[in-house]
Structure formats: C-alpha cells, structure tokens
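Message: Just now I want nothing more than another pair of eyes on a protein record. I am handing you a single protein, as its sequence and its fold in token form. As I understand it, each token names a local backbone shape. Take your time, and here it is.
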Amino acid sequence: MIENIKPLRYKILFLASWFPNRTSRVLGVFVKKKAIAISRKCDVAVLYVSADPSMRDKNFDIDCRVEDELLIVRVYFKYFFSGVLKKIIYNISFLIANYLGWKRIKKEWGNPDLIHVNVIDRSGYIAFVLKYLKKIKYVITEHSTPDINYLRGITSKTKIPLKFLKSIVIRNSEFMNVDSQASLEYYKKVGFKGNFGVIKNVVEIKPEFLVSKNKIKKDNIKRAVHISILNERKNVTDIIHAFNHICNELNRKDIEFHLIGEGEQKDKLESLAEEFGLLNKNIFFHGFVDENKKFEILTNCDFHILNSDEEGFSVVTAESILYGIPVIATKCGGPEDFVPTEVGILIERRNLPQLIDSIIYMADNSQNYDPTVLQEFGKKNFSPDVICEDTYKVYKLAIKNWRAGNTNYITSVEPDWIVLDVGSGHQPNRRANVILDKFMGKTIHRTNQKVEVPEDKQMIIGDALLMPFRDKEFDYSIASHIGEHIDDPIQFCSELKRVAKKGYIETPGPLTEFFLPSIAHKWTVTKRGSTIYFKKNSRKKPFSKLFYSVFYLNRDGYDFETIKSNNALLKLSNVLLNKIWVFLPLTYMRIVWDGKLSAKIIGE
C-alpha cells in the first residue's frame, strides 16, 4: 500500500510583464514575491523581457541567474529608434528577445508544465503563441489597476488598449485571477469572457519586524507613513494639505508624516511641504530604501495612509496590516476587500475633510488597535503560505493534459488522481506520483542510463510482472517503452489492469523495430482495439546503418554505432527524421485503456 504520496512539484514558468530589473528596482516587486511564495510547492522559473535604451554595443543581452531559489532570465534589447519604424522595430525586438529567453529557459531548466502570465501586456501574447506552438497551457494574474470611475458608473466609458487582443488572450487562458473583487467586477463589466477568480497578492513576512503588543514608544510623537511610487493617482498632495491643516491651523506638533518612495511628483510634493513650513519638521521624505529599511520605518510608525484614487490591491496597505500597523485607506478598489474596522478606517476618495478627521482619529487612537489581531488577520489573507496554496489549487485545475512516452502523446489526468509510472527509468513521467523500476543501475534496457528519482516522486523497486501494490491502488498508470522488454507480456498487461483503473501504454512499432532495433527488445508490438499483440522480435541489426546513425546522431549508449558530427546537413537530417518519425504509421504502438485491456502473443 502506498502512503504519504508527495505533492507534485509543478514546473511553472512565470512570464512577467513587470519584474524588478536593472532599469527599475521596484517594478513588479510583488510579482517576484509571488514567485518566491509559489516556489514553496513548485519549481519556478521567470522570463522577463524589457527594452534598455542605454544599450549600445549589442542588440540583446541575456542575464541568467538564480535569485531566492528562482531561475530568472532577464533579456534586454536595444531600443532607441524613433519615427514610423519605432513600434515595428520594438515589437520585432521584443519577439526575438522572448525567443532567446525561451531557449535559455529550456536549456537551463527544461519545459514548463504550465505558464503563469503576470500582467497581460505584453507577456500574455507570448503565452498565447506558446500555447499553440508548444501545447503549453497558461493562467493569468492581472495586476493592472481597474478604472474605478467606470466600475461605479461615474463615467460611461473606459479605455483598454488592444482590448480585442486581450480578450483573445483571456478567453484562451485556463484561468484569469485578479487581486481584488473590484478588479474582477471591472473586467466582467468591460465584457471579457473567461474563468475568473480572486487571489490576493503576497505579503512577505519578516518576523523580526512584527510589531509587539507591548511596544514601548520613546516619545509622544504619532507617526504616519505612506509608501508608493509618488504619482498623481496616489494623491499624496491631499495628505500634505491635511497635515498642513493639522499641524499649522490646529497647531498640533505631536504628529509626523513619513514618505517612502520615488516618483514623478516627489519634487512637487517636497516643495509643497516646504511651502507649508513642514519639510523635515513634520514631513520627511526618505526616497527609495531597501526592504529592511522600509520595514524598519513602517513598523516604527503608528499608522499607514493610502489616499489613492484607484488601486487593484495595495500591497503596502496589506503589509501594514500584517505587521501590526492600523491603516487609513480610500475606497479605491482593492482595500475594500481587506480593511474591516478592526484593522483600520475606509474613507471616500478625494475627500479632504474625511482624511483630516481620520488622521486626527488615528493620532489619538492608533494605540488602541491590537497588533496581534492585525497580524493574524494579515496572515490569514496575504501570507506566502496562503497565497501559495490558493495558487497551487488553480494550477491543479489547469494542468490536466500531460505528455507521455517518446511521442509526447497527450494524456488527460485529473488533478487528484494517483499516477504510477511503470519502468520509469532515467526519464520518469512528470505527472507520476509513484515510479516503479526493477534495475536502479545502468542497464541495456535504457541505453545504459541510471534511474532518476525526482524529489516529488516516491520510488518503489519492484518487478512489473509482480507489482507490490493493491488492486486498483492507482487511478492511472503509464507504461512507456517497457512492454517490448518484458519476459511475459500477458502477465504484464494483467498486472497493469490489476493495479490501475486506466492508463496509457506505448512501445516501438514494427517500423521502428525494423529501422532502429535494440538487442534488449524481445517483442514487436501492435494493437487492434483494446488488445495488444506481441510477436517475438527476431530483428537484431538495423536495416540501414546510415539511417540508424543519422537518427541517433551524437548520442551514446545505443546498441549499434552512431555518428559524432557537427555537420550542418547531418544535424538538419537528424532533426527532420526525429520530428517526422512520430507521425509515420507503425513507428509506435500507443493505447489508452480504461478498464478493458488484453494481450495476445502471435505465433504461439
């Protein structure tokens, strides 16, 4: 009996439209945090492509490295054109850069089981192409900020660039998740069709910064904090006006405002604070700081202010709650999902009197919020474990088609099925939970390769003719290129039918045994209906040594001599032969069986 089945570690490729890079350290930092969180249960690689106007010496630059246990491939391309050709050159360069990045991902990491698009522009279009060229499905997480005015009927129209293309990408995805209910309602109102859901963004947990319930203040100053890219949508101008009223008109000197971040409005905001006589007295600009410094400033403040016009989620608001800091947030989309009264105050957008009243209330009452209550609320809603588990459930529903055998035959396997790979060898099936093999060392039965045991699979050493499993213990079995090696194929098929409810079997066909024989193959295999026919294999050498050598060009471990060559014509011939071979009749025997499976030996 098989116990403690290991959860499958899916291979997930993040195609990220936003991601921290050498031209912007903060762009899409929450995408990276989500990738890190998901890497707890999946193997994750990231591909990010961006123009770099500073490039001069080369057209493309591939930066491949491991960061936080993620394989990250960033591809930069030269872009300084102008005029009519600007968009054309940009798009061509973008496509080439993605192709180069894809090749590097495959070389370093292999093929993904699923693509996870983060922001449709522009990575969604690449995922759509890969789905139809490489047969790899994709899911989407959209982080773009919704048009709240349109959603609430304040305006009658909303602008979505390339709406038609986006609708195709969404419709062809397995799932599209957004980070708030407001975003979900917005995309539905716009008219997009697809499988939609809500998964919040990840908030990183650094235990050393969690606010203690018994926190001791060193002074009587109440400190508010705001963290963002300082632009018009964040409406920091009103916060400064609010502090002008509180500090100058109400003459309260026991309150400070700390701003973290850079942005197009920073100089304007500093000038406004200086005009009010508050700069570096009651209002402090910290600029861009690293993560540790950010959390140090955040957790030394008493409350956080978000005064945005629109937000799809607001990571910094969620961070404040999780670390034990109460919040003031506008009803700008995302915060309505996760700012109940026990963690903070919701106010109307562009409402200066409400903002002033809320700041005064927090200055007088922030100490009454229990940080442990806020932290528990945050952990239940935004912690890496929670977001990882929610996302993993989406992956399980999305990945039902799996490749099997040398032919990459697409098999349909439900997410909760327990799958057995019989004779897994050096290429165990990606979807298998349990793998069975008789020989662990090198053997002629698998071109002298050793058995590979991935960490997410349970290895059982045993004989395929007498498997150590209960009847119907597996929902599905895969037996790829083992049937031709078996001493007793009747018993083999009987055992497969006994231990599994259904499955897939693949062997070489008669044409392969004729042109590409192996001395380890005991049978030539064919099928008719649900019956597999085995005939003693008498072929002991290839019909054509040249054909055999070209087919297995530059490969080792085969029974007969192969060619080692870098000749371009031979390499092209090798690629074409291997591509075409799968589609020719009688090159392979493939059978999908469900309950019914029988075998007969021809000539006995």
